[in-house]
Structures are given as C-alpha cells and as structure tokens.
Amino acid sequence: MAARKETRKVAQAWIELKADDLEAASALEVARGQLAAGQHLQRLRRIRLIELEGRLPAREKLEDLLHGSTQFYNPHKERCVVRLTAEESPPLQAGERAVLVTERDGSRRAAAERWWQHETGEKVSVREGTAWALTFDSGAESATAHDLALVRGRRHGLLCNPHSQECRWAEDHVPVPWIQPDGAVSEAAPVRRRSPSTRSKR
Amino acid sequence: MSGPRVAVVQFPGVNCETESVRALERVGLEAEVFRWTRPASELRAYEAYLLPGGWSYQDRVRAGALAAKDPLVDVLAEEADRGKPVIGICNGAQVLVEAGLVPDHGHVELALARNRMTDRGGYYARWIYARVESSPCVFTRHLEPGTVLPLPIAHGEGRFTSEDPERMPALLRAGQVPLRYAHPDGTAAENFPANPNGAQAAAAAVCNSRGNVLAMMPHPERAQDLGALARDIGGPWSERREQAMATGQADAEGPGLALFHGLKRHLEG
C-alpha cells in the first residue's frame, strides 16, 4: 500500500469588519491626540489574521469551511481574504505599513481547532493575531511607526505591550506564515465576542 | 460625612463605581464618582483616587490601554508623584500598569496578560485567598504579614508578567507585591486554580516603591459585606460569615474593607 502523501500547508485568513471599526477609530483618535508618534498617522485599520496549518483542503473547500463557522468570522459583518502563498497579495493598500501583534504563547485557538477536526477529521493548528495597517503622512519616518506600535511609556506606544505580546513588521512583503508558532493554546473565541455589557462585570 | 475626599474615576465602560464609593464611605471617607467628561484639573482637589473595575473604553486595543493615555491619568500621575494614594482595581489595575504608574512611574515594565489556566482560557471568576506580604503599600501595611483575605477575582487578563523574568521576583523581594495568591493556610499559590491566572510570583497586586500606588486584580469592594462571601470559603472568615448570617447581619463588615481602612488610616496620618 502506498504511503499517504503528507500535504502540510499554511493558509491565512485576513478578516476585516465591513462596517466602521470602532476599535481602530478609537486607537487612531488616541494615537493622534495623545502620542507624539501618532501626529503623522492618517489612517489605521485593524485586521484579524487567522492562520491554519496542517493538512488543508483546496482553496474553495477551505473558504467554504471558514465561511461556515463564526469560530473564524461572521460573513454578515466581516469580509475574509484567503492567502495560501506569499506571492498572493494581502488586503493592504498602497502606502500602508502592517504590523502584526500576537499574544506571547497565546495565539493558538483551541475551540477553532476542535471545530475543524469535528468537521474535517483533520488536526490542524489555528493561530490568531491582529494586523494593524498604518498610513502616515509622507514625511513620517520608519522609526515613527515603530514608536507608535511598541508600548514603552504613557506617551510612547499603543498597539503592543512587549511584556505580554510580540509584534512583527511586514517589510517588503507579508510572509506565509506570519504568526510564530507557539505551544500554548487559548480557549478564547474572539469572533463572537459578547458585548461587555452582557458579561459579568469585573 | 466630612472625611478626606476620594475620587472614584470613571472612564466609559467602567462599572464598579457604585460599590467602590460605598466601600470608601463605609470606612468614613468621602467619595464621589469623577466622570471622564470633567476637566482633568479638577482631580487635584481630591486626597486620593480609586480606579474601579469594568471595561474602560470597551477594552479596545488591549485592556486598559486607551484609558492609560487619557489626560486624566496625567493628573493622577502628577498627584501620585506628590504622594497621594491611588488604587486601581481589576480594570483600574490594568490602566495603572499600561500607564506605567506601577511598578514605578515612568516606563511600562509589566503587563496584565491573558489568564493562563489549566485546560481552559479566557474570562474566569472565583473567590481566591490573598496573603498580605510585608510592604510599604499604604493600603495593606497596617495588616500583619501573613494575614489571609478571601477576595473575589473576575477577569480575562490578570496575569502579572514581565518580559524580564527577573522583574517580578525582584519586585517581590522589594516589597512591591503586597498581596499574593495563596492557599487557605497562607502558603503562596503558584498553580491554578488557587493562582487563578498564572501570575508570576503569585502576584495578586503590585505597588510602586513608595507604596502609594497599588494595582490589584481581586475586588475588595465586592468583599465588603460578610454575606457576599462564597459559601465554600474556609477558615475564620467562614465562621464570621455564618455568625453574621445567623443574626441577620449579612452586611456586616467583610474582608475587603481592610484595604479601605488602610487608606483611611494613611489619609488621617
């Protein structure tokens, strides 16, 4: 009997709200209003990045599976762009700089992995991070973007607290995979975050 | 009432302000909610500050991250530098950590990261035991080191951590971890569930070196009534609770008020 051929792959799902993203709007407002490095920030977008790694089906089936569960995204509220290779363009616009923020040792999504195995029989790893797409005035230097991303003090940095998070900049291209694998598995299911008002207060 | 005045600073999304005011008033302090819409300079009129729990700015970007940049926090930082006490509870602690007011004013040296628990993740709520450590903290220094307080926690991001693995142990040695997660007998709890989030050094709270700014994840304001204690709490607090319930005094003073008494003692010099 011929050995079953392993076809381990990585797929990226870039997921963005169709409506105005209030989280990005708040971050933009605070960056521009309170941080020196944010003075030249013109635009800020937040894109959830999910990466699946393992024996994955062909693109059409993969897209159907992602579309089929809010473990990944809600097609009524969000749009999803799938990338299978680094040669495919990510949904970034001309002039945007992208930084990926992930929780250190906490990017794995156990519930999504269980859902995938239930649906397909395949064990895959599912990781998630947040890609921020920043557009600056033409005069802004590269260091400005880095200052804006990495939190160092009350007036320095916003998007990534380096004591619990990692950030990685996309330079000439966005790699596949982009999220660094880690062993920790998180149960968090951020796609269908309940409104804070419906959770127990803390 | 005419005790020292404490501002309970409310950012949008904060939701523990009412019980925080009540806890402060019960120990004889004058407290009022100070909303984010007021001029920041008006904060200077108060003798102390409390940042209550909740979801400031809906936890956008990261818990506490946006409130930490609010101009109100600039005034809090200046007043803290003058020695005025500031306590942040749960989301308030996240704000203080993200603002760099603890462990010391200036750089952000810590994070309150997502909980790390056995076989689960996300939001977690339960009663824990917090052991008082020797510390200059104005909220706890009147308590005997080793005292165990049952307090509730309720959070998804409460794990005190630093990218420098030596930072939290150094803070513990310096007396800047005034409360640690513990077992009922008072031994420090390194593992879940007694340590409910995987905090380094079993830290339930971190203060600045001067001791006047405290970031704590447990909710002392929710443990102000004996009747609120969980029924499976053991030890002397259980006996007090049963006694209070038997005599119809469910609102008798609970363990959480100890920290507010510490604040009052400090303010009255």
Topology (elements, then pairings):
The complex is a heterodimer of chains A (202) and B (269).
Chain A: E1 8-17, H1 22-34, E2 41-55, H2 59-67, E3 78-83, E4 97-103, E5 108-109, H3 110-120, E6 125-136, H4 142-149, E7 165-169, E8 185-186
Parallel strand pairs in A: 5-8
Antiparallel strand pairs in A: 1-2, 1-3, 2-6, 4-6, 4-7
Chain B: E1 5-10, H1 17-26, E2 30-35, E3 48-51, H2 71-81, E4 86-89, H3 91-99, E5 111-114, E6 124-132, E7 148-155, E8 157-161, H4 167-173, E9 179-182, E10 203-207, E11 213-216, H5 236-246, H6 257-267
Parallel strand pairs in B: 1-2, 1-3, 3-4, 4-11
Antiparallel strand pairs in B: 5-8, 6-7, 6-9, 9-10, 10-11
Could you characterize the architecture of this molecule?
The complex is a heterodimer of chains A (about 200) and B (about 270). Chain A has about 200 residues and is of the alpha+beta class. Chain A has one domain. In chain A, about 20% of the residues lie in helices and about 30% in strands. Chain A has helices at about 20-35, 60-65, 110-120, 140-150; strands spanning about 10-15, 40-55, 80-85, 95-105, 110, 125-135, 165-170, 185. A six-stranded antiparallel sheet of chain A has the order 3-1-2-6-4-7. A two-stranded parallel sheet of chain A has the order 5-8. The relative contact order of chain A is 0.22. Chain B is an alpha/beta fold. Chain B contains six helices and eleven strands. In chain B, strands 2-1-3-4-11-10-9-6-7 form a nine-stranded mixed sheet, with helices on both faces. In chain B, strands 5-8 form a two-stranded antiparallel ribbon. In chain B, helix 1 (about 15-25) links the parallel strand 1 and strand 2 (about 30-35). Chain B is globular, with a radius of gyration of 17 Å. The interface of A and B includes residues 153 and 189 of A.
